[in-house]
Design brief:
This protein is 19% helix and 38% strand. It is of the alpha+beta class and 146 residues long.
């Protein structure tokens, strides 16, 4: 999917407007309200359709694993491993992905390996901001005094 200059600037303006209205919340996702991680964790073993940039159309990949990474102060990290049973090759990049429960979304994937059974493996990494480092989730920073 190609983004036009007009679409890019429209999205940028909308993001700036939200950031001005609610600066901290525009850059953070509360861990308890981040459905992304919980959604993927519950879909291990399910099939996702990846739209290719060439004439192949879509290929099926299965979410093989959801791996939670150690959290850092202010972040939540996890990785997804997908497997293409037929060994279909995808280059590193952003793809339109569709899954029955999650709908359509863009996902950045990186090829990681092929195994002896002809399967291709891909990984997607997430690093979600959960709040300002040192703050508890939902806590608002104290106003600065000049």
């Amino acid at each position: 999917m190609k983004t036009t200059r007009k679409q890019f600037f429209s999205t940028l303006v909308a993001g700036v407007a939200v950031a001005v209205a609610r600066p901290l919340s525009a850059l953070t996702i509360a861990t308890e309200s981040a459905p992304v991680a919980r959604s993927f964790a519950g879909l291990v073993g399910r099939t996702f359709q990846v739209t290719t940039a060439d004439s192949r159309g879509t290929i099926d990949v299965v979410l093989e694993s959801y791996d939670e990474r150690p959290t850092s102060d202010g972040t939540r990290q996890f990785s997804l491993t997908f497997v293409a049973a037929g060994g279909e090759k995808l280059a590193e990049g952003i793809y339109v992905v569709e899954q029955q429960q999650m709908g359509r979304f863009d996902l950045f994937v990186v090829p990681t390996r092929h195994d002896g059974q002809g399967r291709a493996f891909y990984r997607s990494d997430f690093n979600l901001l959960t709040g300002k480092p040192g703050l508890k989730t939902g806590e608002t920073p104290a106003p600065r005094r000049h």
